[in-house]
Amino acid sequence: MRALIVEDDKVLAQQLISAFHEAGFAIDHAEDGTNGEFMGATETYDVAILDLGLPGMSGIEVLTRWRNQGVTMPVLILTARGDWTDKVAGFRAGADDYAVKPFRLDEVILRAQTLIRRAAGHSRSIIVAGPLSLDTQLGVITRDGSPLKLTSFETRILSYLIHHQNRIITRTELSEHLYEAETDRDFKSIEVVIGRLRKKIGDGLITTRRGEGYVLESSAG
Amino acid sequence: MKSLRGRLLLLAGVWLSAALLAAFLLISHLLNQFVTDRFDAETFAVADALVGSLGIDSEEEVSLSTLPADPRFGLPFSGWYWQVNSGGRIVARSASLLDGRLTGSTGSYVGGSGTGADGAPLRVLRREITIPDAEEPIAITVTAPQSEIEQSLREIRAPLAFSLIVLGVGLAAASLVQVTAGLRSLDRLGDDLRNVREGKEDRIPLPDVAELQPLTHEINAALDQNATHLSRSRHHLGNLAHSLKTPLAALANELPSDHNGQTLIARMDRLIGWHLRRARQAGPKQMGRRCELRPVIDDILLVLRWPLQDKNMTARIVCPEGATFSGERQDLEEIIGNLAENAVKWGRRQIGITVSFPGDRLVLCIEDDGPGMAQTDVPKAMIRGSRLDEFGLSGSGLGLSIVADLAALHGGELRLERSSMGGLAAIVDLPA
């Protein structure tokens, strides 16, 4: 999963980045509204964490521009005032959830994960795909009830596939949700990681469609 | 004098009285002239007739061939007298003089004054002429009774005074009507201003009266300025909140969750929020704002969409078409937002938002089918920062006290009762 964090306060931004990294996210960070707006409109993210009080372009303006350009990713707004006017303005501009400062990092991550799950069309916090299940609140993937030991990159790939199970995911799409903007995208390493994943979760769950991409089939296994 | 109407009327009264008095004096003077001229003309005519009949008789004495025929000169002491002198000797005199004689200053004049034999004042005409063959100059004196002149003047002055009084009363009535009509525009302006204060209008409509338009423009400009200042200070308050709470968030995340500092951070956060809200509410209540209820309810439900959906709850809304709240949208958002959020948090299957207008009140009822609240807990729930949900559910605990403060600010109150749905009913009762 890949998230965009738009927050001007360096300390808070760094805390958010670390916490999201720890939760298995690929993170891009923008320090002001103008950059954040550009990144959100041009890159693909699973969720955006957007501070409303940004220098330059305000958070509300960034969000409005994204929505006007057809950017549909779920957006979690961070508001300092915490009054309903701020929340209403955020939601009218197209926000999906809010967190009021000072917030707890785990709460923001939980909310971000909930938004991703909902955006993929899952109403329950535990997404089941055949023998696999992903607890979106804890970020834990289990097979037949026992937790799998996965690296952060493996978790990122597998949780994306579980969110979008039974759908062909092209390598390009997958790479867009795995890598941070500054990282070189490498289809070879995706193939290597998919191979490792197959060994860990068992063969037959992830199938390769030649020339198209990968599918995680919930009926398999 | 404090009353504008009183001042205008007093001024109009003083001016009217002065103008009418001046008119009376001027017209009286002209009438006086006119009347005395008429009397003078009469005495003049008699004098002319006497001059015309003067002659020298066979004994070389001055004599009169004919006497004036006017019967008034025959009535004794009538005041109408004539007398012809030659030197110190009386040549002839009117019958009205009987044996009396007219005395007075010498020379020719009109409008002199004198007295008759009975002491009555007279208006005197005297003319001195010389005629051929007479040894001495001849003096002709004709008089008219001053009392008759006065009588004539009195007869004219009375109707004149009466007409002027009628005119004065008419003009006074007219200025009363004028002042009242003029001041009615001010009354209307007052009504318009009250509408703004009560939130029925944003601005004052431009009056028909040209003189009041600059005032109206000024008042509207002041209203606009007030709104600008308010929104600017709110903006600054927002910035202040942001600049304090962002580092506070960073600090909270920097410390371990069981660190003593976390309690202090939570307290600081509450204090910042509380004082920001107080500052906002203590500011001038923005005048002239009225906002529709339904869109605000919809906006709040938009914010609460996911919590409602996650708990599989429904919201039952009853709101009359076009219902409005006399105040700012921000305040209404805060009231409905906090109460609806509580209802969603505590409710099981549904929440209800009902707007009604009993009499001249606006009653907002936000209820749920949750566990409700014991009456003994109600006072505690209203206290700043107190939370009844100390089981880890999120919420600052300020919600109810904010709503209670806002309701009081708008001249109403917040009541907590038992809902017919089974849970808590938060009722905000405001003037409509």
From TrEMBL, chain A:
> Which ranges does the entry annotate as DNA-binding region?
124-218
Q: Which InterPro entries match?
A: CheY-like_superfamily (IPR011006), OmpR/PhoB-type_DNA-bd (IPR001867), Sig_transdc_resp-reg_C-effctor (IPR016032), Sig_transdc_resp-reg_receiver (IPR001789), WalR-like (IPR039420), WH-like_DNA-bd_sf (IPR036388)
Describe the location of the OmpR/PhoB-type domain by residue ranges: 124-218
- Spell out which residues are annotated as carrying 4-aspartylphosphate: 51
Q: What are the protein's UniProt keywords?
A: DNA-binding, Phosphoprotein
Could you tell me which residue ranges the Response regulatory domain spans?
A: 2-116
Which PROSITE patterns has this protein been placed in? OMPR_PHOB, RESPONSE_REGULATORY
Give the highest taxon in the source lineage.
Bacteria
Q: What is this protein called?
A: Response regulator transcription factor
Q: Which organism is it from?
A: Paracoccus onchidii
Automatic annotation (TrEMBL), chain B:
Q: Which Gene3D superfamilies match?
A: Histidine kinase-like ATPase, C-terminal domain
The record's EC number reads 2.7.13.3
User: Which residue ranges run through the membrane?
Assistant: 160-179
- Reaction(s) catalysed (UniProt annotation): ATP + protein L-histidine = ADP + protein N-phospho-L-histidine
Using the record, list the residue span of the signal peptide; answer none if the entry has no such feature. Answer: none
The UniProt keywords, alphabetically, are: Kinase, Membrane, Phosphoprotein, Transferase, Transmembrane, Transmembrane helix, Two-component regulatory system
Pinpoint the HAMP domain residues. 180-231
Keyword Manganese: yes or no? no
What is the protein name given in its UniProt record? histidine kinase
